[in-house]
Amino acid sequence: DYALYHSKERKRGSTTLFSQEHEDAIRDARAVETALQSADLAAEMEMHYQPILDTVTDRITAVEALARWTSPKLGRVPPDRFIAVAERCGMIHSVTLLLLRKALADAARLPPEIGLSFNLSSHDLASSETVIAILAAVRRSGLDPHRITLELTETALMRDFEGAQQAITLLRALGIKIALDDFGTGYSSLNYVHRLPLDRIKIDRGFMADVETDLGRSVVSTILDLCQNLGLDGIAEGIETTEQLNAVRGHGCRYVQGYLIGMPQPMADLLDGLRKMTPPAEPVVV
Ligand code: C2E
Ligand code: MG
Ligand code: MG
Ligand code: MG
User: Which parts form a coiled-coil structure per UniProt (predicted)?
Assistant: First the structure.
């Protein structure tokens, strides 16, 4: 049967296509792993920062740190690719801490009313060693923990729900906020979202593509109602057009993020942009 199936597939060419893609993916992951293991991570990695807008005050309320790796061997490698590899080859603990320290150091340059949001890998909360190291890094940075949000995905919670719950409680006791990232892309969000001590929910950008259709609108407004009922801030991700911005605002979404508001950029560029947005209160006398 297998041979028959196989030859049928082969005739259509899909087996060959699949195994070719599969082989490419494996080769790619190996190349990333090799480059990662021999990388000077501190020198090759930097963080970019994307603004999150409070539409009520019309001010930037926080920035999300997004990792950027330029490998001398591979060029730019997007975080979706190298984080997964770091998780598999046991490097995620050191990668997370390196990136977090960079983000905390950069955040010292932000005005004190602006918060820092940082993405955790799904492996991070499962390791008490990592959680303790995160707490130590935050304390050593001197940044007010109330300004820090840690973003988690559903995968992180499903990996070990009890463990994640404990870690979240510990982090929140220090004042750190917790956001559930990419909300709506997992398969069981509604099962546990009310059982977790969360502060924010980030509505996945996949929903914004449809937000102008009736069905898309009703999905987004349902998620926003859920946020409101649970007393959580909803943040709409991936806002690219004014129509999308108006649609989510119309449903009471206060916080928005996306290319329309600002691109991920180096801290220096972000600070320049902020200065242009908020001119000095006193006229400058030359
Ligand atoms: P995420 O946390 O959901 O981050 C949002 C992603 O959407 C970012 O991609 C951002 O550049 C992109 N984005 C923002 N606005 C728009 C928009 O208007 N349109 C579109 N099409 N895209 C937009 P990026 O930087 O490639 O990061 C991808 C993912 O990699 C992140 O998704 C996050 O899960 C992960 N990641 C990034 N930095 C880190 C990190 O430092 N640590 C860990 N563990 N994961 C990270
Ligand atoms: Mg995120
Ligand atoms: Mg997201
Ligand atoms: Mg994502």
Answer: none
